[in-house]
Records
---
Amino acid sequence: MSAAPSPERPWLVADIGGTNARFGLVTRPGGRPGTVAVLPVAEFDGLPAAVEHYLTHHAGGARAAAASLAIAGPVNADRYQLTNASWAGSSTALGIAHVEVLNDFEALALALPQLGSGELASLGGPEPAPYMVKAVLGPGTGLGVAGLVPSRNGWVPVPGEGGHVSAPVVTDLEFEIVRALRADGMPSVDAEHLLSGPGLARLRHGLALVEGTRAAPLPASEIVARLDDSLCARTVEVFCGLLGSFAANVALTLGAHGGVYLGGGIVPRMVSRVNGSDFRRRFEANLVLSGYLTGIATTVIVAEQPALTGAAAWLAHRVAGLDAAGSPAPPRHRPTPPQPALSVPEDAHPEASPAARSSTQ
Ligand SMILES: Nc1ncnc2c1ncn2[C@@H]1O[C@H](COP(=O)(O)OP(=O)(O)OP(=O)(O)O)[C@@H](O)[C@H]1O
């Protein structure tokens, strides 16, 4: 069991993505991470070299008493494997007495109960219901997804690999883009292949193919920045529509009455674009359960490095036995979820009799 953090023996927290490795220190119990630095993953051979660099060059040679590592990829006890970069190994190689390894979106989910209103921006819907299941997702180098479930003993994070489900292709244009990309060599159509930084570039390429034009490749940051370029603007529109449908899929799968939260490296940088897009209409556009989705808030996490906050909360929970999200535990008895406003059109399930439908409600 590790000691509480102090300025002399801080806790190291990290959020390791396919592009960026973010580090910070927690120097007091319950404190938020400070001394934050962001290092490029591609410039280091592996996690131990990046940790060594951070502690030596950004943290005054600090020696960590414990660490919490949020990794963009599957984790198994002390072992990690980045999905979109080469780093892999065991956390024991860091030589730190107590190390927790968790998924990066699991850490982001754990940050949610700690975030203030100034760290969140609405994308539509009602106020998020407290103490109900929450979902978090975010396009970055990849597409992360996780849930956060209230229990009698506090919040329970639910990691997964939801970015690798099939892409939520809905409109004729989206089908045409995917068909063009498939013909151009895209091997499969995971959601992450379209809803990520590389996905934005792929969507723009696909849109150009559909329109019979050629466009020199551009990175995601350029596509988002070029407001007066028609192809870039339409690419962002397609991205936002797909994102709305994907967020709805996650909300429906988890029953996320506590809200769907969006993080990652792209959406927080273009909140007004997403707000002015088809995102929310696509989120609510479900033939059977539109009323259910209308009652679910969609919110962008605009906090600085929120996954570090979640990684610190997880360590506090594991070391000091605090609620996993570092916040007061939810009520012992879960409130009844709002009843979904089911409005089933007569022709939605032509094979089902009214009696059969009502028995499922
Ligand atoms: N200003 C910007 N606008 C839009 N996209 C951007 C911007 N800056 C960076 N990106 C894109 O964000 C992605 C990186 O996002 P993020 O910082 O979440 O990565 P990461 O945490 O390393 O990745 P992941 O956790 O998904 O593996 C890159 O694909 C990059 O092109």
---
Amino acid sequence: MNATAVVRATPAVQLPLLRTQATGNYAAAAAFAENFAIESRNLSYSVKTRQGRILPILNDCSLSIPAGQFWMLLGPNGCGKSTLLKILGGLLNPTGGYLHVKKPRSFVFQNPDHQVVMPTVEADVAFGLGKFNITHDEITSRVAKALDAVGMYEYLQRPVQTLSGGQKQRVAIAGALAEACKVLLLDELTSFLDENDQVGVIRAVKSCLASSEGTTALWVTHRLEELEYADGAVYMEDGRVVLQADASTILNFVEDRQSSYIHQINS
Ligand SMILES: Nc1ncnc2c1ncn2[C@@H]1O[C@H](COP(=O)(O)OP(=O)(O)OP(=O)(O)O)[C@@H](O)[C@H]1O
């Protein structure tokens, strides 16, 4: 286990888990786990190359995301953020380690044009509800509530192709909320958006969490300025979780990393 990084990241949160495991107090450990929406320990993921070689992508990734909070996942290009998010979303299976993610969980992808599939906003948000055994009234009520949470209720009858990128992202998030997801996994939603839309989507997610009962969001981003909206963040490098902490600690850590990198290049 990457105990150093974990204990250093959020000692008040992490230490009781280690203690309950050490003493074998499983009831306390279970109650403690209830407070977390996402928990992984020593998670690894590797793929087999065409030559039959094992290629490690993620190593020893340990993190704990408290339920009901808005967290971000950051790190340089290619460090493994999307791969980790796909594992948390059940789209890929880890090759080692322990993982618990509260369910149902929903994954919202990067490109807004790949998110919305039905002709109108209302139909799109209702689309995923077909798999549940619920009444038409219940569907109508869930769609209205979810669109309201992302500030898009007045767009109910709008053809989706007339929406902006940020509005499409919000509709996609509403679709996930309508399915009553406990964990919302969001992969670089703002990379296709202009500045106004970026902030609009982040605020929509924050307001959804505030109006939900314990929904947790994990948001992958490259943009350090988005950290100001986060309750906490996880920083990765080279397939590993390097630090989990509150947003300002992560911001300082990444800025220090960047300035020492620039210093190295210039010296
Ligand atoms: N199926 C695969 N086969 C080979 N390499 C892979 C595979 N999946 C991911 N990788 C490699 O693993 C590394 C992590 O990829 P990933 O997309 O998770 O990174 P990321 O942090 O999300 O990157 P970015 O910020 O650029 O989107 C990259 O070097 C990528 O090329």
